Amino acid sequence: MGYAMKKPLSLLTFLMAYADDLTIITGRVRNSQTVLNSTGEWLHWTKTMKAKPSKCRVLAAKYFTSNDEKLRLEPHSKQPFSTFDPLLSIDAKQISAIGPLSLELEDKFKFLGRFFRYDQKDGPQELLVHDSFLNRLKAVDQDLVNGLMKAWLFQFWIIPSLAWPFQVYDFPLAFAKSLDELSNRFLKAWLGIYKNADVGLLYRSRASHGLGFTKPSLLLKQSQIIKLHLVKHSQEGEEGNLRKLYWNRLAREMKFKRRWKPGPTLEAAEAKLSFEIKFAGQTDRKGLGFNRYIQNMSASASRKRISLGLAFDHDRKAELHSMSLSQQGGWTKWRENVHPLDLKWKDLIFLKNTRIFSHHLNASISCLPSPNRLRLWGYIPSSKCPLCEDLKCTQMHIFSSCKTALLQGRYSWRHDSVLKCLEPVLVKYIKAHNDSKLPKPKLNLIKFVKKGSRCSSTTQPPSKHLLSPARDWQCQIDYKDDSIVFPPVICVTSLRPDIVIWSISTKVAILIELTCPSEENILQAKARKSERYLPLLNQIQSNGWTASLFLIEAGVRGCLSFSFAQCLRNIGLPSPKVRDVCKSVQTVVSRCSYIIFQTHKQAKWSRQQLFILQ
Q: In Å, how far are 461, 502, 524, 540 from 544, measured between CA atoms?
């Protein structure tokens, strides 16, 4: 052994130096001792390093076939295949072996973050990981921060602590599911969710109206599969020892039919990924073949795609389970009609009132303590509505169907609060649009580029929208306590759309009608309002005007219909502003519905000021 130095031969030496984490693996005891002797000689030759036998450990195992071998080597157990002390040494100092405490000094040894036991069992490590996980949950639970902050700590502190143990140990899936039960109990308490609520609400993606927490059992599957993928696609090649180790393990795991094993799952995931690469579909508006047909995908990219595929399958299974629930799975019937709430951690952890968010979570799975639900739970004998005395006072009855609440103006107060949220945005935008100059029409000429020269960058023209042709737009908004008359310059009618925007110079009228129904009835509300305003559109067009009708809906749970954002984009609001407006409207609707639900037992409803988001 040795090394050569390049010129100039200037070498700085230190009096104290060390190197550790040296692993020696051989098939025989005498080979191991030979390597140790050579290593000791090399360390002595360097004059800067030396071995420290007191921190070294040896783990040896073999299959004992005769009694002579047992008498000579003293196995640690009575089993044919057992560990033993090979009596290895370095620098004339013996290295301690790992074995039972009755025969050796230590029964386990930590190396590269993993404990190696003489019996190669992970049961004691399961107990250590379980206790560590539970202690972290209790430490967060005892903190004085609010529930959403505790949930953030769970996602970004507690769950990452499981990543390394799940990858280095072959824990069974049943162990991870026991951690799932602990997670469910603490998360439901922190977020104020009904204790028997479907846990899919916690772990579904946010696009599927969930909270997107990482489930310990899913993390275990991803970690185990990533580990096997690294072994299978190591740089040793097809004939390497790691590849042979993988195929032997796969053959053993294929015999298990009921228990989950990572080997068969990895093979199925790679086959699915290969199919997706070869037959990639087009689902968006990007160019054909945009970054999809990658025949030679790197190993790291494959691991990422497989991990995402596991999470996607987990999400679909959670949705299928929700579909089987008659009450808590009601969201699957209206999810395709609305946008999910814009949930970002930077907004959630700084909420001043976390009860409103808990109210939204329970409302999304129909688990609010309404009289009908309390009767089913056995807390009260009757489910009669305190206001209108309807025999079945459900959550949706309180939110949008109570006749007394409708006559008292509770629902119109929520409706007008949404209009009050839109008014300053629309008025400011229309004023800025009217103050701008009308662009002159330009001819789109083709600019030819000479051979060898580069095309000069051109600025994109501003996008056109409904307000582009004119600069004399007017806007009026109709409130219940401040009703207005439809602009007579357009036509004479008794109908009063919530928002009317019109231009006299171009004879264009834009009608916007807002509805705040339950998410289950958004399509019915859209059909009802469309039929109501169809004669008005015909009347406007017969007067020589061009009319556009936009039906926008804000669900009582705070979810907005797709037409809400599309309407704002059609009148020219930029996408960042549209997102901010939609987020404000979601907050206003959620808070108003929270107040309506909390006051459903109060017979009197005093005139409330419109809710204004600060």
A: 30, 13, 31, 7
